[in-house]
Design brief:
By secondary structure, this protein is mainly alpha-helical. The chain has two domains: 102 residues, no CATH class; 88 residues, no CATH class. 76% of the residues lie in helices and 0% in strands. Pfam families: Na_H_Exchanger (PF00999). It is a multi-pass membrane protein. One of its GO terms (biological process) is regulation of intracellular pH. GO terms for molecular function: potassium:proton antiporter activity; sodium:proton antiporter activity.
Amino acid sequence: MKSYVTGSMEERADITVKYTLKTLSSCCEALIFVFLGFSIFSKDHKLDIGFAAVTVVTCFAARFLVVFCLTWVVNKWRMQKISLRDQTIMAFGGLRGAICFGLVLTIDQEVVPAKPIMISTTLIVIVFTVFIQGTMIKPLVALLNVKTDEAYDKSLFESCMEHCFEDAMCGVEAIIGTHGQYYWRNKVDKWNTQFLEPALTRQDMNRGRRLLKKLTDMTTDEQREALLHIEMEDEEEAQV
């Protein structure tokens, strides 16, 4: 929804909404983990060690089974295959947190008398996945030498060439008479431009506007960096 929101608000309003939502998200996340912490250290737990151990092992094994099976199916049609190392990281990185805890709290104890045991077991699964798997994921990535994405902002030229490449590939698919990913992407883009954007935005966020906005953002960042550099030089001269 970001493109539709951006096309319906001014820049100042967009910035305000962006940081307001970030603040609310951080506050809600903090409250959730505070509530989880209180729940973990409460005194009314009913533990079933066997049930908890089977649940943790089953969740762990099921995650690997599902990831490996689905990637095996997907790799049949992918040009760039998902490697075994990537599959291992995908399966090992399955963290479970507030959603499963909220779901188990909604169980009616009159219907399911074992609700206290399920709540305690859910908390054990959360602690295992968040603290054990969560702390081991970074060393595992380094051990398996998994390639990670680096923060990279495309230049204006790269964005223009990417659009040209997509249009060219769409034309090639039309010439050879096939309906590939570029054909369907072009169809969705046209449907979005004709129906969704006029209904949900006050101004048309077409490619030209997007490229202009990108150029404006890049220019603003360059000016900000130049001002910071000038301020640092002024401070160094003042100290001298």
